[in-house]
Design goal:
With 134 residues, this protein is of the alpha+beta class. It has one domain: DNA Polymerase III, subunit A, domain 2 (DNA Polymerase III, Chain A, domain 2), CATH 3.10.150. Helices cover 18% and strands 40% of the residues. It has a 5-stranded antiparallel β-sheet with strand order 5-1-7-8-9. It has a 4-stranded antiparallel β-sheet with strand order 4-3-2-6.
Amino acid sequence: MIEGEFPNWQKIIPASFVTKAKIERDEFIRKIKIASIFARDSGSIIRLKLEGKKLTIMANTSQVGSNETETEVEINGKGGEIAFNYRYLLEALSAIDSEDVNFEMSESLTPGKLTSAEGQKDFFHIIMPVRLQS
Protein backbone atom coordinates (compact mmCIF):
# COMPACT_ATOMS: atom_id res chain seq x y z
CA MET A 1 0.00 0.00 0.00
CA ILE A 2 1.17 3.49 -0.78
CA GLU A 3 0.79 5.80 2.17
CA GLY A 4 -0.19 9.42 1.87
CA GLU A 5 -3.05 11.83 1.34
CA PHE A 6 -5.19 11.11 -1.72
CA PRO A 7 -8.03 13.12 -3.28
CA ASN A 8 -11.53 12.16 -2.24
CA TRP A 9 -12.45 10.17 -5.36
CA GLN A 10 -15.98 9.49 -4.07
CA LYS A 11 -16.88 13.13 -4.75
CA ILE A 12 -16.22 12.62 -8.48
CA ILE A 13 -18.88 9.91 -8.76
CA PRO A 14 -22.35 11.48 -8.99
CA ALA A 15 -24.92 10.07 -6.55
CA SER A 16 -27.77 10.22 -9.07
CA PHE A 17 -28.36 10.77 -12.78
CA VAL A 18 -31.18 12.45 -14.71
CA THR A 19 -31.03 10.25 -17.81
CA LYS A 20 -30.39 6.54 -18.24
CA ALA A 21 -30.12 4.79 -21.61
CA LYS A 22 -29.79 1.10 -22.42
CA ILE A 23 -27.67 0.71 -25.55
CA GLU A 24 -26.64 -2.35 -27.53
CA ARG A 25 -22.86 -2.50 -26.93
CA ASP A 26 -21.61 -3.74 -30.33
CA GLU A 27 -23.81 -1.28 -32.24
CA PHE A 28 -22.60 1.56 -29.99
CA ILE A 29 -18.95 0.62 -30.62
CA ARG A 30 -19.55 0.48 -34.40
CA LYS A 31 -21.18 3.91 -34.46
CA ILE A 32 -18.41 5.44 -32.33
CA LYS A 33 -15.75 4.01 -34.65
CA ILE A 34 -17.51 5.51 -37.67
CA ALA A 35 -17.74 8.90 -35.96
CA SER A 36 -14.09 8.68 -34.92
CA ILE A 37 -13.02 9.00 -38.56
CA PHE A 38 -14.55 12.46 -38.60
CA ALA A 39 -13.41 13.36 -35.07
CA ARG A 40 -9.68 12.70 -35.43
CA ASP A 41 -8.81 16.18 -36.71
CA SER A 42 -11.04 17.98 -34.23
CA GLY A 43 -9.61 16.83 -30.91
CA SER A 44 -11.18 13.33 -31.07
CA ILE A 45 -14.48 14.78 -29.82
CA ILE A 46 -17.84 13.16 -30.53
CA ARG A 47 -21.24 14.33 -29.30
CA LEU A 48 -23.96 12.06 -27.98
CA LYS A 49 -27.55 13.28 -28.04
CA LEU A 50 -30.25 11.30 -26.22
CA GLU A 51 -33.72 12.28 -27.33
CA GLY A 52 -37.00 10.42 -27.56
CA LYS A 53 -36.08 6.79 -28.20
CA LYS A 54 -32.88 7.41 -30.13
CA LEU A 55 -29.21 8.09 -29.59
CA THR A 56 -27.55 10.36 -32.14
CA ILE A 57 -23.76 10.24 -32.42
CA MET A 58 -22.21 13.27 -34.14
CA ALA A 59 -18.71 14.31 -35.18
CA ASN A 60 -17.34 16.87 -37.57
CA THR A 61 -14.13 18.27 -38.93
CA SER A 62 -13.50 21.19 -41.24
CA GLN A 63 -11.38 19.17 -43.70
CA VAL A 64 -13.43 15.98 -44.05
CA GLY A 65 -16.99 16.97 -43.21
CA SER A 66 -19.44 15.70 -40.64
CA ASN A 67 -21.10 12.48 -39.59
CA GLU A 68 -24.38 11.88 -37.80
CA THR A 69 -25.71 8.40 -37.05
CA GLU A 70 -28.72 7.30 -35.04
CA THR A 71 -29.60 4.15 -33.17
CA GLU A 72 -32.66 3.03 -31.23
CA VAL A 73 -32.21 2.95 -27.44
CA GLU A 74 -34.32 2.69 -24.30
CA ILE A 75 -34.21 6.05 -22.53
CA ASN A 76 -35.49 6.84 -19.05
CA GLY A 77 -35.35 10.51 -18.13
CA LYS A 78 -35.24 13.79 -19.98
CA GLY A 79 -32.32 13.09 -22.33
CA GLY A 80 -29.69 15.62 -23.27
CA GLU A 81 -26.46 16.18 -25.14
CA ILE A 82 -22.90 15.49 -23.98
CA ALA A 83 -19.46 15.31 -25.65
CA PHE A 84 -16.58 12.91 -25.02
CA ASN A 85 -13.22 11.95 -26.40
CA TYR A 86 -14.16 8.87 -28.42
CA ARG A 87 -11.03 6.97 -27.29
CA TYR A 88 -12.17 7.01 -23.66
CA LEU A 89 -15.60 5.71 -24.62
CA LEU A 90 -14.15 2.86 -26.68
CA GLU A 91 -11.77 1.93 -23.88
CA ALA A 92 -14.60 1.77 -21.35
CA LEU A 93 -16.85 -0.23 -23.68
CA SER A 94 -14.09 -2.76 -24.34
CA ALA A 95 -14.02 -3.59 -20.61
CA ILE A 96 -17.75 -4.43 -20.50
CA ASP A 97 -18.62 -7.98 -21.58
CA SER A 98 -22.41 -7.79 -21.75
CA GLU A 99 -24.55 -7.38 -24.88
CA ASP A 100 -26.09 -4.16 -23.59
CA VAL A 101 -24.65 -1.25 -21.60
CA ASN A 102 -26.29 1.38 -19.46
CA PHE A 103 -25.20 4.95 -20.04
CA GLU A 104 -26.19 7.50 -17.40
CA MET A 105 -25.80 11.27 -17.48
CA SER A 106 -27.16 14.41 -15.86
CA GLU A 107 -25.85 17.49 -17.66
CA SER A 108 -23.41 18.24 -20.46
CA LEU A 109 -20.58 19.09 -18.03
CA THR A 110 -21.06 16.40 -15.37
CA PRO A 111 -19.48 12.94 -15.60
CA GLY A 112 -21.21 10.13 -17.45
CA LYS A 113 -21.38 6.56 -16.17
CA LEU A 114 -21.15 3.31 -18.15
CA THR A 115 -22.18 -0.02 -16.61
CA SER A 116 -23.18 -3.47 -17.77
CA ALA A 117 -26.91 -3.82 -18.32
CA GLU A 118 -26.76 -7.43 -17.16
CA GLY A 119 -26.27 -6.83 -13.46
CA GLN A 120 -22.48 -6.62 -13.18
CA LYS A 121 -22.68 -4.28 -10.18
CA ASP A 122 -18.99 -4.51 -9.26
CA PHE A 123 -17.83 -2.58 -12.34
CA PHE A 124 -18.66 0.89 -13.58
CA HIS A 125 -16.76 3.45 -15.60
CA ILE A 126 -16.95 7.19 -14.98
CA ILE A 127 -16.03 9.32 -17.99
CA MET A 128 -15.53 13.06 -17.91
CA PRO A 129 -17.17 15.10 -20.68
CA VAL A 130 -15.58 17.73 -22.89
CA ARG A 131 -16.79 21.32 -22.94
CA LEU A 132 -17.98 22.31 -26.40
CA GLN A 133 -17.43 25.71 -27.97
CA SER A 134 -20.72 26.80 -29.55
